[in-house]
């Protein structure tokens, strides 16, 4: 594995109910890159993201995160080094905006004061105001939910941020704004981003690398 590789997917096979989705598939993701995954519907883009996140395990081959083979034993540790933004509303409905944002920080046992400081620092980055913090997800707009989801994914300073069509449920104006915002966040944080998208245009705006399935 090259030194600059942060995620190595090595010769994986993945089947759902006997149907091959990925076959002897390999890919390397460079540290600090923004890889956009493009491909036809059903080609296995979301499946690949779930395999990288350890939500699914391949029947053959493996994924290495920073040189370590992802396994059931080190799954929690590795997951906490990743952020995950999903399509549509993936916020916990029973938690407030603030509680959603600090979810991973709390799993990492960060103090209340640390969490508060971190969220105050991140709010302007995604263009949100603090009057939203005590609302519940069903009291805010789709664009605001995705902004909250982005904070939840980056607040614990993960090494890797995975995004699965994060803007697909949004109107074009909100989508354009959030694309710029995510590009800025990537440039500021220098974190590795992997994003599934259907849009060649989005991939051209955001991606520093392209992966076609
Ligand atoms: N839980 C599941 N059980 C069985 N088959 C599944 C399951 N999840 C996905 N599939 C199938 O696996 C294939 C790959 O799905 P996946 O969601 O990874 O594709 P995708 O490239 O992300 O598609 P899209 O662009 O439509 O979101 C599809 O044919 C899908 O129907």
Query: Class, according to the CATH hierarchy?
Result: Alpha Beta
Lateral strand order in the biggest sheet: 6-7-8-3-9
Output mean pLDDT: 92
Give the number of helices: 8
Measured as a percent range, the helix fraction is: 25-40%
The ligands bound in this entry are: adenosine-5'-triphosphate
Order of helices and strands: EEEHEEHEHHHHEHEHE
In CATH, the topology is named: Rossmann fold
Class based on secondary structure composition and strand pairing: alpha/beta
Tally of discrete structural domains: 1
Distance between the termini: 22 Å
What keyword list fits this structure?
213 residues, single chain, 9 strands, 8 helices, globular, alpha/beta, 26% strand, Rossmann fold, 5-stranded parallel beta sheet, binds adenosine-5'-triphosphate, 4-stranded antiparallel beta sheet
């Amino acid at each position: 594995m090259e030194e600059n590789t942060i995620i190595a997917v090595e010769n994986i096979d993945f089947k759902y109910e006997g149907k091959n989705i990925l076959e002897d598939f390999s890919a390397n993701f460079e540290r600090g890159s923004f890889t956009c995954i493009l491909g036809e519907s059903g080609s296995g883009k979301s499946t690949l993201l779930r395999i990288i996140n350890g939500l699914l395990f391949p029947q053959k081959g493996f994924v290495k995160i920073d040189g370590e083979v992802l396994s059931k034993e080190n799954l929690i540790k590795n997951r906490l080094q990743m952020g995950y933004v999903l399509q549509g509303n993936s916020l916990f409905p029973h938690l407030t905006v603030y509680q959603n944002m600090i979810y991973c920080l709390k799993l990492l046992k960060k103090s209340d004061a640390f969490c508060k400081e971190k969220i105050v620092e991140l709010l302007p980055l995604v263009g949100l105001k603090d009057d939203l913090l005590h609302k519940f997800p069903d009291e805010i707009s789709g664009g605001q939910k995705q902004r909250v989801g982005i904070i939840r994914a980056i607040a614990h300073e993960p090494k890797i941020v995975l995004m699965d069509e994060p803007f697909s449920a949004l109107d074009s104006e909100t989508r354009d704004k959030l694309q710029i915002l995510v590009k800025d966040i990537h440039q500021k944080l220098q974190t590795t981003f992997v994003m599934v998208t259907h849009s060649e245009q989005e991939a051209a705006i955001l991606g520093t690398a392209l992966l076609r399935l």
